[in-house]
Structure to design on (628 residues):
């Protein structure tokens, strides 16, 4: 029996490994190549930081990165504020159209991004908003919002509602209940929502491509336009940086959501 | 004793949820300093009464006066009333100290005073060593005591307790009953306690209000409720009771009647006024019945039946006795020091009687 068992284990292991390879090999190649001294990355020519140095010296690249960070931080923050309040409203109050509103949150999460992008573009043109920073910001807030709502709402659902009544019974006004009870308890979910939004905003291409103007370039679009000419080693290194930032954000947000179950 | 001062009065409260009438023209007066209990089966509206007093729910109609002031329009946070919730509802992100300090902080009490009052309250519930613990690190009984401290620290005019002991196990619950009663005496705060546990209600309260389907069934001291139930519902809800059907056959005089029960004529006392021919229920508590062996001819009039069940309960011997009519009586007898080994065998014939006057005779009704 023992050999068969060992064989089974081997098959299982190799299956797992092949999936992981499939998922991560391309990314691994990209990361490795960002340190490859060879310009075309076909063979290994030795370790180097030079693409990173070149990257940070590239002014237009740095400007796009700055724009991206500004948009990501601002849109994540605004989406988090609106989303948290919306989640509290959905959880705490009874009002007309509540069921419709909460299912619409999920629908907008599942809407193909291209549809959202076109819709946003049409509305911006219709309303007369110049494509650039503001249109980009509004667009990013829109697609981040449902993720914040869902994260915060699912945390609130775990609350004992009696706790909020107890707070009011002890003299807390509605505002105090929010600041002293709801917000501290929902904070991990709020922070996770922010980090998720930040990541989504930072690497968004589709919506951004539609709603930004030529005057306001952001990182993913800049990278995209560079790739069209050919994959330069700088693209590898900026991708690696983006990857690391996203990875850290996702890990932190997952840790926050998992805390004190 | 001075004349009791009304602290809280509820006038004509009514409340419906959709088609469901939860409270129907409900009136209540609670006196200053008393331990008042609302008792009833689940869904009888007792918790709704409590929530309306606390301001967590609004009545459809009716007035609430606290120390003479109409408070129905005050929001919960403005009422000088605090609640101990069934689930305790402690704030999980705050320490025991912060939980208890919450109410004082909300009302803007100075920091030094908060500290001394919180510690005093926690000493009272014997939890002053647990200041920095989080609620999750406490046992159920300790959480319960934090919830009580968190409410009484605000020195409310009225403390509302919503089934506050029901989540505890039997032993702890009994201990907490004693502690609650002691605390209430010490603080002199009026308690309004809600429970479905009749034993709890009887042992703690100064007065008990029995509710059913949003309507007051009886209001009285625990003794009145137990010994003179106002109707069959109260009689059956408060403890075990035997119910025998009878008919009035003659009137002997003031509240004395000749009643035909189980084929025999008995001279019984009744608070109600009956006329000859009225059907009645004769109610007898299991512990008021006396069971005797049939070995000598009886001088007194007795019911004769056979033992169909006998249960040793430690303190008491509980038996079920079937009468010839098919009615079964429950009896509960304390063990006698003179005869510690008394017992019955199944199918044994026994005589049952009771102390005259301990029966309750009320108009016939069925539940």
């Amino acid at each position: 029996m023992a050999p068969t068992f060992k064989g089974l284990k081997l098959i299982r292991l190799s299956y797992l490994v092949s999936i992981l390879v499939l998922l991560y090999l391309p990314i691994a190649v990209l990361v490795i190549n960002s340190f490859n001294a060879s310009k075309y990355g076909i063979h290994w020519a030795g370790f180097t930081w030079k693409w990173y140095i070149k990257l940070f010296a590239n002014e237009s690249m740095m400007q796009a990165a700055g724009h991206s960070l500004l948009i990501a931080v601002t849109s994540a923050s605004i989406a988090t504020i609106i989303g948290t309040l919306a989640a509290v409203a959905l959880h705490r109050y009874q009002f007309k159209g509540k069921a419709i509103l909460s299912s619409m949150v999920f629908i907008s999460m599942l809407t193909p991004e291209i549809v959202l992008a076109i819709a946003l573009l049409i509305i911006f043109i219709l309303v007369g908003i110049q494509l650039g920073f503001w249109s980009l910001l509004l667009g990013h807030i829109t697609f981040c919002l449902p993720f914040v709502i869902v994260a915060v709402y699912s945390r609130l659902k775990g609350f004992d509602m009696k706790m909020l009544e107890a707070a009011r019974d002890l003299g807390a006004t509605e505002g105090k209940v929010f600041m002293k009870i709801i917000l501290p308890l929902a904070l991990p979910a709020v922070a996770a929502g922010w980090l998720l939004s930040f990541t989504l905003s930072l690497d968004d291409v589709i919506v951004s491509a539609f709603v930004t103007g030529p005057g306001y370039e952001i990182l993913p679009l800049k990278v995209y336009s560079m790739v069209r000419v050919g994959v330069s080693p700088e693209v590898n290194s900026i991708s690696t940086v983006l990857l690391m930032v996203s990875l850290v954000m996702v890990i932190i947000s997952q840790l926050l959501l998992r805390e004190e179950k | 004793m001075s004349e009791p001062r009304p602290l809280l009065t509820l006038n004509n409260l009514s409340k419906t949820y959709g088609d469901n009438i939860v409270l129907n023209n409900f009136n209540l007066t609670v006196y200053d300093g008393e331990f008042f209990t609302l008792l009833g089966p689940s869904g009888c509206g007792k918790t709704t009464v409590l929530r309306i007093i606390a301001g967590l729910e609004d009545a459809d109609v009716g007035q609430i006066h606290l120390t003479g002031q109409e408070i129905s329009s005050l929001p919960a946070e403005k009422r000088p009333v605090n609640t101990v919730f069934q689930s305790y509802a402690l704030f999980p992100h705050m320490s025991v100290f912060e939980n208890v300090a919450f109410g004082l902080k909300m009302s803007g009490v100075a920091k030094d005073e908060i500290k001394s009052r919180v510690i005093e309250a926690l000493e009272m519930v014997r939890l002053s060593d647990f200041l920095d613990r989080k609620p999750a690190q406490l046992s159920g009984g300790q959480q319960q005591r934090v919830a009580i401290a968190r409410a009484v620290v605000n020195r409310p005019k009225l403390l509302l307790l919503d089934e506050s002991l029901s989540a505890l196990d039997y032993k702890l619950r009994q201990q907490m009953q004693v502690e609650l009663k002691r605390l209430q005496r010490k603080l002199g705060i009026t308690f309004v306690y809600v429970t479905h546990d009749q034993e709890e209600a009887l042992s703690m309260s100064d007065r008990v209000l029995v509710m059913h389907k949003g309507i007051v069934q009886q209001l009285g001291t625990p003794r009145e409720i137990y010994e003179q139930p106002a109707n069959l519902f109260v009689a059956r809800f408060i403890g075990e009771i035997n119910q025998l059907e009878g008919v009035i056959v003659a009137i002997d005089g003031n509240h004395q009647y000749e009643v035909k029960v189980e084929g025999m004529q008995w001279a019984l006392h009744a608070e109600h006024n009956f006329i000859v021919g009225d059907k009645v229920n004769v109610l007898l508590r299991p512990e008021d019945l006396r069971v005797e062996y049939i070995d000598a001819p009886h001088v007194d009039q007795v019911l004769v039946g056979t033992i169909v069940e006998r249960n040793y309960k430690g303190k008491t011997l509980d038996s079920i006795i079937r009468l010839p009519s098919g009615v079964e009586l429950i009896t509960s007898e304390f063990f006698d020091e003179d005869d510690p080994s008394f017992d019955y065998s199944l199918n044994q014939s026994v005589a049952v009687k009771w102390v005259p006057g301990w029966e309750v005779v009320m108009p016939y009704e069925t539940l």
Remarks:
- Chain B touches chain A at residues 54-56, 75-78, 81-83, 85-87, 89-93, 102-103, 106-107, 150-151, 154 (CB under 8 Å).
